[in-house]
Design goal:
It is a single chain. By secondary structure, this protein is mainly alpha-helical. It has one domain: Arp2/3 complex 21 kDa subunit ARPC3. Helix content is about 75%, strand content about 0%.
Length: about 170
């Protein structure tokens, strides 16, 4: 059962990562655009238990570190998304009012995207990377949050259905 979940989850991650690399990264949106894969990964983590959220964030971080447009050292996205995936899953898992509201999930994922990118930028600055000026970084981070609020309502039903098909088991009586 665990192997089936791992294989299905991995293939779903690769599909969304491929869409991000082949389609979304090729388009230029105003205010920095959005990351479909990051939205997917944080929605997946938010729908899971905290431990699964951390593992989902770790897997998403591995793929984002392998992204050709990623400029940081390998492992930077893994660290950031493992922590943010756990935090989002922990916040949503423990609060029933957050669990039953799709709007709260969308807002939580948008804040997760902002937190992830801001943590990545902060960690990059600590490691000595030159990423640009502060105004441009702030515009990109807030633009990603706004784009996430606009795009996440369309992605959430797909992610929710995929998550349910992977993690809900039906036993035959």
């Amino acid at each position: 059962m665990l192997t089936r979940r791992f294989l299905f989850s991995g293939s779903i991650y690769f599909v969304f990562f491929g869409i991000q690399i082949m389609a979304i990264d090729q388009l230029h949106f105003p205010l920095g655009g959005f990351s479909l894969f990051l939205i997917f990964a944080l929605c997946w983590a938010a729908l899971s238990a905290p431990e699964i959220g951390a593992v989902a964030g770790f897997a998403a971080g591995v793929l984002m570190d392998l992204d050709p447009s990623s400029s940081g050292p390998f492992g930077q996205w893994m660290l950031v998304l493992s922590i943010v995936g756990y935090l989002i899953a922990f916040l949503r898992y423990g609060d029933d009012s957050l669990r039953n509201s799709p709007l709260s999930l969308i807002i939580l994922v948008a804040f997760g995207v902002i937190l992830s990118i801001a943590a990545y930028v902060l960690l990059s600055m600590l490691l000595g990377d030159n990423l640009g000026n502060a105004a441009q970084l702030a515009r990109t981070i807030l633009g990603n949050g706004l784009w996430t609020l606009a795009v996440a309502p369309f992605i959430l039903p797909v992610v929710s259905r995929l998550h349910r098909s992977v993690f809900e088991t039906r036993e035959l009586l």
